[in-house]
Amino acid sequence: MKQPNILFIMTDQLRWDCLGYAGHPDVKTPYLDTLASRGVVFERAYSACPSCIAARAALHTGMEQAHHGRVGYEDNIPWKYAHTLAGELSAAGYYTQCVGKMHVHPLRNYLGFHNVELHDGYLHSARYSDIPYQESQFVADDYFYWLKQELGTAADVTETGLDCNSYLSRPWIREERFHPTNWVTDRSIDFLRRRDPGRPFFLMASYLRPHPPFDAPSHYFDMYRSMTLRPPFVGDWESTEELKRYGRIFDSRTGPADPELIRQAQIGYYACITHLDHQIGRLIMALIEHKLYDNTVILFTSDHGEELCDHHMFRKSRPYEGSCHIPLFLCAGKEALETFCPSSSCRGLIELRDIMPTLLEIAGADIPDSVDGTSFLPLVYNPQGTPRTWLHGEHSYAEHSNHWIVTQTDKYIWYTQTGKEQYFRLDEDPHELCDEIHNPVYQERICLLRNHLIDCLKNRPEGFVEKGRLSAGKSYPPTLSNA
Questions:
Q1: Which parts of 165-282 are beta strand (E)?
Q2: Which residues are catalytic?
Q3: 5-388: CATH, from 3.40.50.920, 3.30.450.90, 1.10.10.10, 3.40.720.10
Q4: pLDDT, tens digit, for every residue of 436-451?
Q5: Transmembrane segments in this chain: where (predicted)?
Q6: C-beta atoms surrounding 292 within 10 Å
Q7: Helix/strand/coil for 446
Q8: What is the pTM of this model?
Q9: pLDDT tens-digit profile of 164-194?
């Protein structure tokens, strides 16, 4: 059997439940629903360090966070890894192309891709006036460079007044064809035109949305403006202290205090998702028209989620489902995978580090010893299998720094600075509305998960474990020395 083509559709900040096929009552995603219905949906996929850089390090290296060294968000740390997903696929005979977001350093680090057409979105650290010429986004970022060529040197994505981490939203102010979501699709389709027909390809279509700014074209805002939207999830354990302090700050880690701004954020986020869905539909149609669909494997996921005002929170990096639980499915044309099990779902616990070994196995390539992840290709053939029983996640996040253990049924959380613990029964309470940490019924289970975390952390350089117990208040930098 010849090597199949691989289309890897990557999104940014798309939470696990904001898709039609996932049962969301409001969000419309007809093209993704169609693809998911033809494949295997992985219902329990996670991002173990849920922010852009650390999540992508796991994706590109197949390593868990203690080994790739990025346990939080920090810009301008060079990426130097011996083995990467694109590098290994290139060595296995694939032509490898990325279009869209990489979020690595330096910006034009190709990580083994033969070619990259780059758009990282608005990166504060790459826009300051003292940035070296080659590291300026206006030079290194292909979308920004193209936009200025098309519309003049003054053209910029900041003209809407929206920040790249803000809950504010408003429609795109230009023709839709200039939107970065359309640009990723346009450039991906052009790759299909100019590919080498004698080689299999690995195309990573890496979309920035629905990461803020929430700026989809007006048509997509209009779809949601008159809808009664499901309110954010707020549990019995919540505190409004931070919301009162930060709820008027547009780029805060909390959501807005104003209910109308919450609604506008939901509208903007959902509009970006449906716009993204329609552009992915364009890409799939082009795949069919180029007669490539039948021999192509399609993998869809996101780097992390978005709290979207659940628990009064916004953005990511937290240990809660809106932040760390991600969508993921795999489907394939009739010639791409043998004995494939379409139209099914799997509750096996998987993580971004598992994508590299999975795609390498599909390509018939060797998996490097540095890879910590496990191929979930066996689950594509037998969705009832179980690749792991629990997963360790974490994020350095100042006073909100956290570690967590998640299983198919429950989650234990430990906050590194305060020592606060939480426990949720995800099988009964998927949106974490009831904290059961003090429930006597679950103390034995909590102790077991806590011991799993102690085993994970006992040799970490931060000193999180002392005398066999978790020890709070330790310094917890976002980058380890081995990064």
A1: 201-210
A2: 52, 103
A3: 3.40.720.10
A4: 999 999 999 999 999 9
A5: none
A6: 20
A7: helix
A8: 0.97
A9: 999 999 999 999 999 999 999 999 999 999 9
